[in-house]
Specification:
The protein is an alpha+beta fold. Helix content is 51%, strand content 19%. It is elongated.
């Protein structure tokens, strides 16, 4: 309550900075509780997996799990 808005924003940024730098797209979904999943759907020329992040509406975890199960059954994962 005593900090100016700009100082408060900087404080929040510093608290989450490490996570944002490591995984900027996942953190927002972790903070808001929105379901998301990253799946290894491609392998790059250097052999590293390339993940695709999928997001669903709140409460729709089953959609992501079902899609993931389908892709696994169809042998679409690349390691």
């Amino acid at each position: 309550e005593e900090l100016p808005t700009s100082d408060l924003a900087e404080l929040v940024y510093q608290v989450f900075k490490k996570g944002l730098l490591a995984s900027p797209f996942a953190m927002i979904y972790n903070l808001t509780g929105q379901p998301a999943i990253s799946l290894p759907l491609h392998t790059c020329q250097n052999g590293l997996p390339l993940g695709v992040q999928l997001i669903a509406n709140k409460g729709e975890e089953a959609l992501l799990i079902g899609l993931s199960a389908y892709l696994e059954r169809e042998d679409r994962f690349h390691y």
